[in-house]
Design brief:
With about 150 residues, the chain is mainly alpha-helical. The protein has 2 helices and 3 strands; from the N terminus they run ααβββ. It has a domain at about 45-140: 2-Layer Sandwich (Glycoprotein, Type 4 Pilin). Strands 1-2-3 form a 3-stranded antiparallel beta sheet, with helices on one face. The chain is elongated.
Length: about 150
């Protein structure tokens, strides 16, 4: 009859204890929490920056439209006139935006356009209601504010 021999651990091999593994997991959790908190607000800031860039692109396109047609699009014609020629826009040579549809703001809402403007009485008002999607509240992005 053969005897069954139990294997024994080699005293020279080293393994991690459960305590060491838990310590590493705790350190990783703390580091990821710090990084997460640090970058959590960056997405919102990036959207605001992108919206300001998009606003400047609209302003450039509207300026080109005005130079060629002689006036800005009416409120009724709206921003669509930067892509599709309006019926009464002699001199139109667009499209003035590289898009098939008028882009929405970074929060999925339509940009608001008025000509003549109420804030820019000699020009147009162009604005997004910002992250909250409502007028006012201090987060609107508009062409009459100082940072645009």
């Amino acid at each position: 009859m053969k005897s069954i021999q139990l294997s024994r651990h080699n005293p020279h091999t080293r393994a991690f204890s459960i305590l060491e593994l838990l310590l590493v997991l705790v350190i990783l959790a703390v580091l990821s929490a710090i990084v997460g908190v640090r970058f959590a607000g960056q997405s919102g800031k990036a959207k605001v920056t992108a919206a300001n860039t998009q606003l400047r692109d609209f302003k450039t396109a509207l300026g080109a439209y005005e130079l060629q047609v002689g006036a800005y699009p009416t409120t009724q014609q709206g921003l669509l006139s930067l892509i599709e020629e309006p019926n009464d826009a002699a001199g139109w040579s667009g499209p003035y935006l590289e898009a098939d549809v008028v882009p929405k703001d970074q929060w999925g809402n339509d940009w608001q356009y008025r000509y003549p403007g109420t804030h820019n009485t000699e020009g147009f008002d162009l604005f997004s209601h910002g992250p909250d999607g409502r007028a006012g509240g201090g987060d609107d992005i508009a062409n009459w504010t100082t940072n645009n």
